[in-house]
């Protein structure tokens, strides 16, 4: 095992355990335990275990991975993102061959027997793959107070059939992007 947090993870050859500092689009990690798996020359994978004491508390006990083909690594992707509100995560999932992204969103309070729209703030939104949600601690989907949930390329609309204005709504969207 290498114990230098400055070890360049791109230059590892062979399988084994290493300590390194993965760099991801919007995230900077301290030293992490990284498993390097090489299944043939120029091909393999790396899994980084983000553990307490080396990374932001928000990413404790989460994992990221990337694969290597033709001697080139792909981007780091989340296996289990920490799902902080308003943060976009590129996950290791695929939909029709495209990477799936996830974003947790606070909708705020639900409407009073009407509709309410908010912007989800996702740039280059491609296709909605799935979503989950909570309405005041209960499942949002098929909730008796909700008539309709509409999610498009720029906004989320929720329509209620009763006064739900004291209930907070949280959603997690899973989607593709037009840029992939």
Question: What does this 3D model show about the protein?
Answer:
This protein is mostly beta strands. The chain folds into two domains: 9-82; 95-177, Immunoglobulin-like (Sandwich). It is 0% helix and 54% strand. Strands 1, 4, 5, 6, 7 and 8 form a six-stranded antiparallel beta sheet that branches. Strands 9-10-16-12-13 form a five-stranded antiparallel beta sheet, with no helix packed on it. Strand 4 and strand 5 form a beta hairpin.
In short:
The protein has 180 residues and is an all-beta fold.
Write the layout of secondary structure elements.
Layout: E1 16-20, E2 23-24, E3 27-28, E4 32-40, E5 43-50, E6 62-69, E7 72-73, E8 77-78, E9 88-95, E10 98-109, E11 115-119, E12 125-135, E13 138-139, E14 146-151, E15 155-160, E16 168-177
Antiparallel strand pairs: 1-4, 2-3, 4-5, 5-6, 6-7, 6-8, 9-10, 10-16, 11-15, 12-13, 12-16, 14-15
| Count of helical regions | 0
CATH C-level name of the largest domain: Mainly Beta
Overall tally of domains: 2
Oligomer: single chain
> Would you identify the regions where 5 or more consecutive residues have pLDDT less than 50?
1-5
Task: Indicate the overall shape.
Answer: elongated
Number of strands: 16
Mean pLDDT rating: 90
**How much of the sequence is in beta strands?**
over 45%
Radius of gyration: 20 Å
Give the ordered list of helices and strands. Answer: EEEEEEEEEEEEEEEE
Helical content (DSSP H or I, runs of 4+) = under 10%
- How would a crystallographer describe the biggest sheet? 6 strands, antiparallel
Please state the structural category.
mainly beta
CATH topology name of the largest domain: Immunoglobulin-like
Q: Give me the CATH architecture of the largest domain, please.
A: Sandwich
N→C terminal distance:
35 Å
């Amino acid at each position: 095992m290498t114990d230098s947090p400055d070890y360049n993870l791109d230059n590892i050859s062979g399988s084994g355990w290493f300590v390194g500092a993965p760099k991801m689009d919007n995230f900077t990690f301290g030293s992490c335990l990284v498993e390097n798996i090489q299944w043939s020359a120029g091909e393999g994978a790396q899994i980084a275990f983000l553990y307490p004491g080396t990374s932001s508390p928000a990413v404790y006990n989460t994992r990221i991975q990337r694969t290597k083909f033709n001697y080139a690594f792909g981007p780091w992707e989340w296996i289990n993102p920490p799902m902080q509100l308003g943060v976009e995560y590129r996950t290791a999932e695929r939909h029709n061959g495209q990477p799936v992204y996830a974003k947790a969103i606070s909708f705020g309070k639900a409407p009073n027997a009407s509709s309410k729209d908010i912007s989800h703030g996702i740039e280059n939104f491609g296709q909605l793959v799935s979503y989950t949600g909570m309405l005041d601690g209960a499942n949002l989907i098929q909730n008796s107070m909700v008539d309709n949930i509409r999610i498009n390329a720029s906004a989320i609309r929720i329509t209620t059939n009763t006064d739900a204005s004291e209930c907070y709504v949280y959603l997690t969207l899973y989607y593709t992007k037009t840029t992939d």
